[in-house]
Amino acid sequence: MSTKKISRVRRADPFFERESKRYDFPLPSREYISQTLEEQGQPLSFEQLTDLLDISAAEGEMFRRRLGAMEREGQLLRNRKNAYILPEKASLTAGRVQGHPDGFGFLIPDDGSPDIFLEQRQMEKVLHGDRALVRIVGKDKKGRPEGSIVEVTDRANSRVVGRVFVEHGVVFVVPENRRITQDILIPPEKKPKFKPVAGQVVMVDIIEQPSKYSQPMGRISEVLGNYADPGMEIEIALRKHDLPFEFSKECLAENAKVPDQVKKADHKGREDLRALPLVTIDGETARDFDDAVFCEKQGRGWRLVVAIADVSHYVKPGMALDGEAYERGNSVYFPRRVIPMLPEKLSNGICSLNPDVERLAMVCDASISATGEIKQYRFYPAVFRSHARLTYNQVWDWLSGAAEPETEIHKALQPQLQSLYKLFQILAKARVKRGAIDFETIETQMLFNEEGKIENIVPVVRNDAHRIIEECMLAANVCASDFLATHEQACLYRIHEGPNEEKLKNLRSFLSEFGLALTGGDDPKAKDYAQLLEKVKERPDAQLLQTVMLRSLKQAMYSPDNLGHFGLAYEHYTHFTSPIRRYPDLLVHRAIKAVLAGERYKPGDWEQIGLHCSQTERRADEATRDVQNWLKCYYMKERIGEVFDGTISAVTAFGIFVALDQVHVEGLVHVSDLGADYFQFDPIKHQMLGERTGQRFRLGDRVRVKLIKADLESNRIDFVLAAPGAEKGDASRGKRRGTAAPAPAVPVAPVVAPARKSATQRMAGAASDFMGKVGKAVKKVAKKAADGAKAKAGKGKKK
After folding, report:
1. Structure-model confidence comparison of residues 227 and 275, the more confident one
2. What is the C-alpha separation between 766 and 351, in angstroms, rounded?
3. What is the pTM of this model?
4. For the chain, N or C: smaller number of CB within 10 Å?
5. What is 91-154's CATH number, 2.160.20.10, 2.60.120.200, 3.40.50.1220, 2.40.50.140?
């Protein structure tokens, strides 16, 4: 539909221009649909809406799908007459349910209003992640709005990973996701595909969702193995967080057609950079190389060439490979295993910039002044070959003089490596001048032996070779965002907003306790943060102050709205340099190519794509954190009773978290173990304060703790405060006192599932001794059957 044919009614849409940029055939925006319902002041049928909004018969199905999407997200509701109404008109709030391991939960409203508390009986109707409409019925004991679930609009869980338990012949699965607190009943089948065995980790297809009358019921669809089998923690994380980890047949078929080498025909329209000594610099264990760099003196300034793998040449819109890459959003890096965004033939093959082979690239060729200012740049497709695969440690050894290059190839590369280093130093100074925030954080790496056993957890030491590549990538990303903004081509920016009003107020209140102040008034900039960090970096409490400052900032995300990057102090910033492992980078490449071709790139709704990619990034972070926590917990299992020094890394109402110095593991000292006193939690000052003794535990304080528990079932590590005079290590270990215990081996034999509270203990009460032992869920169903309810599952159990 051309814009000339669109009626005046449709043009009155306040978001008409936005929709036109996203779609060739724009429908009325969601906001316009809601506005129309608001103006009419009454429920409207589908036919009435189509008349009011001038929807043609050809657009009817597309419009119905948009209304359906709005329903699923709680923006619309249909009454008993099938007419559309606004939820707020029915005094209902739409949002997503967030469960809590203790059984209660919250509705996180879509409109950003305060979270609504859902007590345990309400949570029995839903599972964590479901979408629902809630009516506020009052306030809870803490003054929070409390709600009652009126309708579940979207079920988020169709499959769940968990462990099998069998009690008195009743089989149920306890979900690994602790926010799902309901056990899933497994009814008996005549010919079951899998025979349930207590302690096994399984996938369950939910065949009946929870309701007011019954617990969820499921069917075992896959047996993963025993809980402590090697690699099981990753298998659980993949399924718990719904991470795609198998490529479809269509993807694999397209992947098989990808050439192993660059074809001569692909050289057409590309600049030839094969003679330019571009090199890759990565970690020792890296297998996919998506960036190569070159630097040389250019007058008083520098020429920087950043060549990025041209993934967009092989992965086109509409391909199954592209759809799979979008669903994954990014590659996920677990210890000892990678879940790639693209199949290995692409990510480690034709799109990996391996040395001494021809590769296709998108190139950012920039001229940078002697003060680190990007004067000009251009983007173009090229063919090139990497002249060497170098590592960070190798390059830093050469630059620092710790080692000399041995091969002729490496000797020939030294001038350009020196140029890269000098450019880095200039860019680093420009970074400081710009006011970018540079938080000093400690990253850790798990070391395994050849048998897959954990040997140690060590900090990752960054050197200037890491920082050289980082600054080169930042420069290329800034050029990409500027290029697209200048040409008014929509894209996904990498945005990072500053602190909101409440967090800023709390931060300033905290800093005032130390006689410090954050400049910048109501709208501080990154430079204000950077100046304060520089001021406190030599203080003994610098880590504490940095941590609190970091927590005052929001998380970075992807958005089509250019809001700038607060932490890096850039007015515009996007991701261009990793299209092998990040989908937004692939979209940026396509957008740049479209501009070069004089076209416009429209992949769909940029905002939804940005939200999806931000969500997959969070999903990957949560999954890798789960795996790391499990491995750390297993690593600490054989060190029960040992004493460690550490730093308070977080303070909560239920205790303090302590990060250990040597093994880089974090655990909890529960509030009940802090001492014989009542401790009050102060979220502003990040501390626990004893009412009687005045004893204080504050973020960043040094403590000595004793390990008392490492629970694999909950991934929890528990400490108590060590007795005065306690020595590090364990005295009972003699010569090993004060040293790290030998690393435990990941068991290969099946293990019995960890002890768990019986069904009787978990029930709110029982109608009989038998029903008490059967379990909370069965008791509910049976009770309803006894009362004459219509819950079929309950009747079956009663019989």
Report:
1. 275
2. 62
3. 0.78
4. C
5. 2.40.50.140
